[in-house]
Specification:
Helix 1 packs across helix 3 and helix 2 packs across helix 3. The chain has one domain: CheC-like (Chemotaxis protein chec, 3-Layer(aba) Sandwich). The longest helix has 23 residues. Helices cover 36% and strands 29% of the residues. The protein is globular and about 45 Å long. By secondary structure, the chain is an alpha+beta fold. Strands 1, 2, 3, 4, 5, 6 and 7 form a 7-stranded antiparallel beta sheet that branches. The two termini are 19 Å apart.
């Protein structure tokens, strides 16, 4: 497990998403929702972010001020996870790859197909996983 990826994921999820990181997660990667962010610059590749549905719903509630009793629309959960993926990608690329200017494509829903560097995070709200794949 990549400690730098884990630390970035924990820091961004807490500061931006108002989630409660508990530490490294073990077991299967959460398969409910997955977002891919392609990047190019000094290196090119893909950042994948997977989340359990409860975590994505909690993230949407926090970012969109949705009341705890109200249902979270699928589109809101996906959009919140896209925002988190974009910020995580922007934070991890300069730290893990060469310094320089990176261009991020719009985050897109994707299937989990992890290779490369991997980290999994357990939060009070659910599970998150990140993979950094360099072409």
């Amino acid at each position: 497990m990549n400690e730098t990826l884990l630390n970035i994921l924990a820091q961004v999820s807490e500061q931006m998403g108002f989630l409660t990181p508990l530490g490294p997660a073990d077991g299967a990667v959460p398969g409910d929702l997955c977002i891919a962010v392609r990047f190019r610059g000094p290196s090119a590749g893909l950042v994948l972010l997977a989340a359990s549905r409860p975590l994505a719903e909690a993230l949407a509630r926090n970012l969109l001020a949705i009341d705890a009793g109200d249902p979270v629309a699928d589109a809101d959960a996906v959009d919140a996870l896209k925002e988190l993926a974009n910020i995580v990608a922007g934070n991890c690329l300069p730290q893990l790859l060469q310094d320089g200017e990176y261009h991020l494509e719009s985050p897109q829903a994707a299937a989990w197909n992890a290779g490369g560097e991997l980290a999994q995070l357990s939060c009070a709200e659910g599970e998150l996983a990140i993979a950094l794949q360099v072409d």
